């Protein structure tokens, strides 16, 4: 497989040589090495220095833009993310939309390679590509607005209502969706600003959300990231080396039984802004938090023992005959084993948008999951979670989107060309 998958966070990104003199580089490695050596890991040790430390290849790493799939789907969690949805402006037709996708593609491929755009804002001038990815998707309403109803995939039928939804329509859906990810905040914002400027009179911002993950290199070893509840989150994601990974996550060549041919190599993204009720969550003991999820907080291992990667034993009972992993534990209710095999690739960002009127953090998860078919991924799992997930008392789904994300493009093509010119 050639996509940007990983077991470890950096494995398939392409490091480019940093522009550092050999002397400076050696000095840098020396300082960082001394800090690590003294503490046994990359722990927050003060390093005396009077110039910024170029720690690694974080800035100079580039994710290839061209390929069978768009970048930003299987990419390892990036430190900074922006999600933005646009609606086509009144009067903007299919031709205008095609011109916009062509502009966006040009911008995305330049920035992903660490180059500037015409009329560049200069925001990211001193940085490399920092693993920037830009991923484009089409919402259900795009097809009506452009006269392409016949090309609309059945998989874009609206998601069912879930009893626990408290959705804000203004922050949901949209004709077009863009996911930006990078390991540097200025690089990510630079891309956001450039794409928004490209939209010009063709499309208007409908909603926009900002997210983050742990920075690369912040932990001694690459490890599964944590969410704002403190849990190790992402352990049981499908892995690219799984035999059925492509089949679960990507629309097959030719488009598959229920997909139009233009979706070959594409995927469907479900996006949910999920607020975490952190004051309530933090009021629980660690033991109770672990019961809610079914895994240990410290290392993500299942309550039935082993390490993070040990399979949970869903049959195990304690001395009193009660299930060790509770019937309503999130990891049990969401597991493929209890959902007829339904699975999705979860690639969320955390968010924090300040505090509400009661002083509670407006924080949580920008949940993004990828699948070849939402009816065999997100929908059955969320239906089940909606009925009996212990985590439900501590979260609120506040916004929702479903997007058809076409396959990647070759040099000279633009994303979505097969739809817009088919
Ligand atoms: C409908 C899909 C899911 C939503 C929505 C969801 C929200 C959500 N999840 C966590 C934290 C964890 N989830 C974990 C596992 C897990 N979650 C889902 C699906 C949804 N989660 C799946 C399919 C799985 C894997 C289950 C399995 O195969 O065993 C875990 C455990 C570690 C892991 O496997 O990632 C945590 C922790 C939060 C906080 C949240 C909403 C805010
Ligand atoms: Fe989950």
From TrEMBL:
Keywords of this entry: Heme, Iron, Lyase, Metal-binding, Oxidoreductase, Peroxidase, Signal
The Dyp-type peroxidase N-terminal domain, residue ranges: 70-213
Stretches assigned to the Dyp-type peroxidase C-terminal domain: 224-409
Catalytic reaction annotation: heme b + 2 H(+) = protoporphyrin IX + Fe(2+)
One Pfam family in the UniProt entry: Dyp_perox_N
Transmembrane annotation, as ranges: none
Entry's EC annotation: 1.11.1.-
Region annotated Disordered, chain positions: 292-314
Annotated localization: Cell envelope
GTP-binding listed as a keyword: no
Cofactors demanded by this protein: heme b
Top-level class of the enzyme under EC nomenclature: oxidoreductase
Listed InterPro entries: Dimeric_a/b-barrel, Dyp_perox_C, Dyp_perox_N, Dyp_peroxidase, EfeB/EfeN, TAT_signal
Cofactor binding notes: Binds 1 heme b (iron(II)-protoporphyrin IX) group non-covalently per subunit.
Keyword ATP-binding: no
Family: Belongs to the DyP-type peroxidase family.
PANTHER family: DEFERROCHELATASE, DEFERROCHELATASE/PEROXIDASE
Biological role stated in the UniProt entry: Involved in the recovery of exogenous heme iron. Extracts iron from heme while preserving the protoporphyrin ring intact.
Protein name: Deferrochelatase
Protein's organism: Streptomyces lycii
């Amino acid at each position: 497989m050639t996509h940007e998958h990983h077991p470890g966070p950096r494995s398939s990104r392409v490091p480019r040589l940093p522009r550092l003199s050999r002397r400076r580089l050696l000095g840098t490695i020396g300082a960082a090495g001394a800090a690590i050596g003294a503490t046994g890991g990359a722990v927050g040790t003060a390093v005396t220095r009077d110039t910024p430390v170029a720690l690694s290849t974080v800035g100079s790493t580039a994710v290839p833009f061209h390929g069978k799939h768009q970048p930003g789907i299987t990419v390892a969690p990036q430190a900074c993310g922006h999600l933005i949805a646009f609606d086509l402006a009144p009067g903007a037709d299919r031709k205008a939309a095609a011109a916009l996708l062509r502009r966006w593609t040009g911008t995305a491929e330049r920035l992903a390679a660490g180059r500037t755009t015409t009329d560049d804002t200069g925001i990211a001038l001193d940085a490399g590509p920092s693993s920037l990815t830009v991923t484009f998707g089409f919402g259900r309403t795009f097809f009506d607005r452009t006269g392409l109803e016949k090309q609309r995939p059945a998989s874009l039928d609206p998601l069912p209502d879930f009893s626990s939804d408290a959705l804000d329509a203004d922050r949901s859906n949209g004709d077009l969706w863009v996911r930006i990810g990078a390991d540097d905040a200025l690089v990510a914002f630079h891309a956001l600003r450039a794409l928004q400027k490209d939209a010009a009179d063709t499309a208007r911002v409908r909603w926009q959300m900002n997210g983050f993950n742990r920075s690369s290199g912040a932990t001694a070893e690459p490890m599964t990231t944590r969410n704002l509840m403190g849990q190790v989150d992402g352990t049981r994601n499908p892995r690219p080396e799984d035999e059925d990974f492509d089949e679960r996550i990507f629309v097959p060549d030719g488009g598959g039984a229920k997909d139009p041919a233009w979706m070959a190599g594409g995927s469907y993204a479900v996006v949910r802004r999920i607020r975490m009720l952190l004051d309530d969550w933090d009021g629980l003991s660690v033991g109770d938090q672990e019961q809610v999820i079914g895994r240990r907080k410290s290392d993500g291992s299942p309550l039935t023992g082993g390490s993070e990667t040990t399979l949970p034993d869903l049959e195990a009972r304690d001395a009193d005959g009660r299930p060790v992993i509770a019937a309503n534990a999130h990891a049990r209710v969401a597991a493929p084993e209890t959902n007829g095999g339904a699975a999705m690739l979860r690639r969320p960002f955390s968010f924090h948008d300040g505090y509400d009127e009661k002083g509670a953090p407006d924080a949580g998860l920008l949940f993004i999951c990828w699948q070849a078919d939402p009816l065999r991924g997100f929908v059955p799992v969320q239906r089940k979670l909606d009925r009996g997930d212990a985590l439900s008392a501590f979260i609120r789904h506040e916004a929702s989107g479903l997007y058809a994300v076409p396959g990647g493009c070759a040099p000279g093509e633009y994303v979505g060309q097969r739809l817009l010119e088919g």
